Amino acid sequence: MAQISLTFPDGNVRTYEAGVTPAEVAASIAPSLAKAAISAQVDGKHWDLAWPIEADAALSINTMKDEAPALELIRHDLAHIMARAVQELWPDVKVTIGPVRDQGWFYDFDRAEPFTPEDLGAIEARMKQIINAREPVKTELWERERARKYYEERGEPFKVELLDRIPGDEDIRMYWHGDWQDLCRGPHLQHTGQVPADAFKLTHVAGAYWLGDASRPMLQRIYGVAFRNRDDLKAHMTMLEEAAKRDHRKLGREMDLFHLQEEAPGMVFWHPNGWQIWRGLEDFMRGRLRAAGYQEIRTPQVVDRVLWEKSGHWEAYRENMFIVEVDEEGAKEKRINALKPMNCPCHVQIYNQGLKSYRDLPLRLAEFGSCHRYESSGSMHGLMRVRGFTQDDAHIFCTEDQIESECGAFIKLLSTVYRDLGFEKFDIKLSTRPEVRIGTDAQWDKVEGALQSAIENLGLPYEINPGDGAFYGPKLDFKLTDAIGREWQCGTFQVDPNLPERLDAEYVGEDGAKHRPYMLHRAILGSFERFIGILIENYAGKLPFWLAPRQVVVASIVSDADPYVNEVVAALRKAGVRAEADTRNEKINYKVREHSVGKVPVILAVGMKEVEERSVSLRRLGENRTENMGFESALTMLAFDALPPPLN
């Protein structure tokens, strides 16, 4: 038998016969390791313990202490175990696919009757029985025709279709969890008992079209979450409960911020309170951009398809664009336009007006650009995913040598914006060259190096996503973390030599010759709609005073105090504070409760005592105590609090 060498993490090298499995390697090292093993890493690839290793490789054995592979396996095995439980309870149900996702998994089923909450409880109970049975997990490679016959005989049409979608050069791998079988690439655990029975929960059911195609059958998707232990599950469920309380759709109703309706799906109707948040955020961003050397522009909403064809978006993005057909006077056929799905090609048009010199670069063009993209009805979610949105978009036209400094300046700007909006923590991911790309390796080396140097010079940590860049250039993604630990990807910075080439952008260099500029796509908030949703949920509606739509309510305790209430409101408004009066004939406790639900940061209660003393009784949102203070002092304090964060 041929011999292979396996190199372990500690540098030790051992020789085995070719075809040895990681399970056999673990057993050769120690019985305890063989018992604890769940999978392996072979040359960096996640490897099933039952898969043979045919050539020299770097090998490490995973146990439940290795979080990432452990969670992947637990969640993947639970998808199979759930599908098995469903078919044992309802044998007529057809199974489809069940991928791992963040925090858990889902599996799609074809069943005539809808799953109920009681059904989910029954499925969970059967899953725990399967886990406790500790049945073996086995895998085999099959001939394609054998697999087809197997699924056809069992009446599983979705599996037959999935089989046809597997490229001809790929193996057909079958997995058994006990007696139940599924088509799967793997890897999986060694037996069902390795799944922690007290660390998973089925959460809900939703509809999903087969393969995401609205013309295909509507299936039922059961979602689940899973972790390595009960404590992690409990912490996650607590987080979900907190997230439900913070749901921006719920708070949006309570705070009277916005609504959506069927006549304009995916388009937001902003109410005065919500629009005040928008304008406050826009003004804040406008000030930051102006200080950072950006010039604000405005480009058209409707643009002829000719530009989208030149930019490449018509071919690559047509299905996500809203088309506008116009009967031009005297034309033989309709003129086809599109609502812009992004701002980039229009920004190049402004750059192209007039000859540019190297002395004009870098040129930073910013737009709060309104865009429209088609999203399926099932994917839309409040403010988080809409069809009409506004980006805090900007494009920087620069030379190759300016990329690093522009990247560094952008990260500094993004850092201060996030901090001032209450997000202290964010992560950076650098996506590098994909296999299919344009440009030379030397060009990619220089541009990727520029982004890395910019991050490292700021002393910031980052991760690399190998091969995940665009075909024309690398990019940075910025993920911020909110108050309950959720990550949101908002900011982006992308290097693009392609669009200037396609749209013939150029500048005159120091040598007198014409050159192509680099185009740097960048955003900090992403879309205003989504970011406002994130802000609402991060603060649970209790927005910073400067950004709150209703900052102060002055409430009368007795009607005789009404004139003083109106005087206080007028003075506050003159000082730049958004204040309103509540002189209704209601008890003060009722008023306080109502405005607290509306997340008003400050309530000033005024009775005859306050009238006589020219004072106010100040109560802040979330606090039970009140503070009596002179009105002039309160006015000075609140006027200062109403100012946006200063530029550093």
Question: What is the strand and helix layout of this fold?
Answer:
Blueprint: E1 3-7, E2 13-17, H1 22-29, H2 31-36, E3 39-42, E4 45-47, E5 57-62, H3 67-89, E6 94-95, E7 100-101, E8 104-110, H4 117-132, E9 137-142, H5 144-153, H6 157-165, E10 172-177, E11 180-183, E12 200-209, E13 218-226, H7 230-246, H8 248-254, E14 258-259, E15 269-270, H9 272-291, E16 295-296, E17 302-304, H10 305-311, H11 313-317, E18 323-326, E19 335-339, H12 344-351, E20 363-372, E21 388-398, H13 403-420, E22 426-431, H14 441-457, E23 463-465, E24 475-481, E25 487-496, H15 498-502, E26 507-508, E27 514-515, E28 518-527, H16 528-538, E29 552-556, H17 562-574, E30 579-582, H18 588-597, E31 602-606, H19 608-613, E32 615-620, E33 627-630, H20 631-641
Parallel strand pairs: 1-5, 16-20, 22-23, 29-30, 29-31
Antiparallel strand pairs: 1-2, 3-4, 3-5, 6-8, 7-8, 8-13, 9-10, 10-11, 12-13, 14-15, 17-19, 18-19, 20-21, 21-28, 22-24, 24-25, 25-28, 26-27, 31-32, 32-33
Helix pairs in contact: 3-4, 5-6, 8-16, 13-14
Gist of the model:
The chain is α+β, with helices and mostly antiparallel strands.
Please provide the count of β strands.
33
- Backbone shape: globular
Number of helices: 20
The termini sit apart by 70 Å
Q: Helicity level, as a percent range?
A: 25-40%
- Beta content: 25-35%
Q: What is the subunit arrangement here?
A: single chain
Mean pLDDT, as a whole number? 94
Largest sheet: 8 strands, mixed
Q: What's the Cα radius of gyration?
A: 30 Å
Low-confidence blocks of residues? none
Computed structural class: alpha+beta
Q: Please list the strands of the largest sheet in the order they lie side by side.
A: 16-20-21-28-25-24-22-23
